[in-house]
């Protein structure tokens, strides 16, 4: 039964940038960067191609206003590549590590409320999957949960000019560029794609998975309920993941080993997408797909390839993970160091959306 959705979500847009330097991985770029608008990738660069390229047709419109845009973005990629590789080596020294796989990453960007005009920025660094230093946007001070980042915190906190520039960029410039990008891609970014929702079970004793794939935008919820009431016991919610075609998929798993088969129809999976009706799937054995009956509509993730996944999606998944298992599969986030920029001018001149 379809019910009107009451998903309370405001119209917010986001601009995110991910910069990653890595070491110890064969056949993988030592540097990767990616830009995303509303979780849709708009740009990509790595140390192999050594060039920043557009990933959406609509983002190419920026060239009509700014003819040198992609040339400048490529220059930014090349400069940051050198800085990030140097910073990774400094981070390894601070942690007394010389061998193995290591990552250094920055994640920064802003959110902009289309209705209120309010903007919020953020700038974060990590090393090998752990937060190292993060900007407090209210106080404009840096938070260093790791002792290896304290020296960097003191240095950046005392650089008042850089702090003011950072605040201005994250709350003003970033939001202005985000609005431009949203206008370029409005017809695509503001569309609604409905998903295919299926019930899957690998074996008779396995949890039943409710999987929705092919939906857009990303603002969605999924949960299980019994007799009309949402339940949490025995339910494990997966994260929202990107599909190859720019849409998303998500899942919610329920353990029914202690539930008599005759009680299964009391359960149903509910998928909510902002602005449309609920999609509900009642738990009935005839509707459950097994290994012998696969669902061809369930897509594989990885639209950006391994490089961009590490550069963006995996970091987000790690931050949102609710179990050790999901954390073990999430991306390693990266660290910071004194040489994040060789000069403030380099840092600010190259940090343009």
Textual characterization of the structure:
The protein has 353 residues and is of the alpha+beta class. It has helices spanning 62-65, 69-94, 150-157, 160-184, 186-189, 305-320, 324-329, 344-349, and strands at 12-23, 31-37, 40-46, 53-54, 102-113, 119-127, 130-136, 141-143, 196-200, 208-215, 220-226, 229-230, 235-237, 241-242, 248-254, 267-273, 279-282, 288-289. The protein has two domains: 12-187 and 307-349, MHC class I-like antigen recognition-like (Murine Class I Major Histocompatibility Complex, H2-DB, Chain A, domain 1), CATH 3.30.500; 196-304, Sandwich (Immunoglobulin-like). An eight-stranded antiparallel β-sheet has the order 4-3-2-1-5-6-7-8, with helices on both faces. A hairpin with a 2-residue loop joins strand 2 (31-37) and strand 3 (40-46). The protein is globular, with a radius of gyration of 22 Å. The relative contact order is 0.18.
Q: Roughly what is the average pLDDT, rounded to an integer?
A: 84
Highest-level CATH class of the largest domain: Alpha Beta
Strand order, largest beta sheet: 4-3-2-1-5-6-7-8
Overall geometry comes to globular
Share of helical residues:
25-40%
Element string (H = helix, E = strand): EEEEHHEEEEHHHEEEEEEEEEEHHH
DSSP summary, beta strand count? 18
Number of domains: 2
Q: Note the beta-strand portion.
A: 25-35%
Cα Rg: 22 Å
What is the name of the CATH topology of the largest domain?
Murine Class I Major Histocompatibility Complex, H2-DB, Chain A, domain 1
Which stretches are poorly predicted, pLDDT < 50 over at least 5 residues?
1-9, 294-353
Characterize the biggest β-sheet. Answer: 8 strands, antiparallel
The structure class reads alpha+beta
Span between termini: 44 Å
Any idea what the CATH architecture of the largest domain is? 2-Layer Sandwich
| Number of helical elements | 8
